[in-house]
Amino acid sequence: MYELTVLGKFAAAHSLRNFKGKCEDLHGHNWKIEVVVTGTELDKADLLMDFGDLKALMNQALDRLDHKYLNELPPFDQLNPSSEQIAKHLFSTIAQGLPSQVTMKSVSAWESDNAKATYLGE
Ligand SMILES: Nc1nc2c(c(=O)[nH]1)N=C([C@H](O)[C@H](O)COP(=O)(O)OP(=O)(O)OP(=O)(O)O)CN2
Ligand SMILES: [Zn+2]
């Protein structure tokens, strides 16, 4: 089994609905994102998949969030833009673009240097 990890980042504003504290107010974060995929079959170049292709898929998903007010952007107009929901959203978005021999393992969203949420699938 092989595992690849790529890192990305985006900056955005959010507010957490029903959060009884300061995070209910509008504020922003520089999220750091970790995407981890796995698979067993290597291609003719002995790659599970090209890091560049995986980064391109990730960055396409992150570009949609970058410098936005997340609460106005689907699905976060309905779901709270917590780091948990951001990780889950990126997991399903990026998974749709993976080649058939590659499986999404996890997406982690670091909200600060010392706090992250990870989505591992159902
Ligand atoms: N499990 C989660 N907990 C919290 C989330 C989250 O997405 N998942 N998000 C927040 C807020 O976004 C909030 O902005 C974080 O604020 P806080 O915890 O106070 O952290 P700070 O960046 O202000 O750093 P300090 O450690 O307090 O200095 C809250 N919880
Ligand atoms: Zn926040």
TrEMBL record:
Catalytic class of the enzyme: lyase
Family: Belongs to the PTPS family. QueD subfamily.
UniProt cross-references to InterPro entries, sorted A to Z: 6-PTP_synth/QueD (IPR007115), 6-PTP_synth/QueD_sf (IPR038418)
Pathway: Purine metabolism; 7-cyano-7-deazaguanine biosynthesis
Protein name: 6-carboxy-5,6,7,8-tetrahydropterin synthase
SUPFAM superfamilies membership: Tetrahydrobiopterin biosynthesis enzymes-like
Annotated GO MF terms: 6-carboxytetrahydropterin synthase activity; metal ion binding
Residues bound to Zn(2+): 14, 27, 29
PANTHER family: 6-CARBOXY-5,6,7,8-TETRAHYDROPTERIN SYNTHASE, PYRUVOYL TETRAHYDROBIOPTERIN SYNTHASE
Catalytic activity: 7,8-dihydroneopterin 3'-triphosphate + H2O = 6-carboxy-5,6,7,8-tetrahydropterin + triphosphate + acetaldehyde + 2 H(+)
Record keywords, A-Z: Lyase, Metal-binding, Queuosine biosynthesis, Zinc
Cofactor remark from the record: Binds 1 zinc ion per subunit.
Active site: 23 (proton acceptor), 67 (charge relay system), 111 (charge relay system)
Pfam families reported for this sequence: PTPS (PF01242)
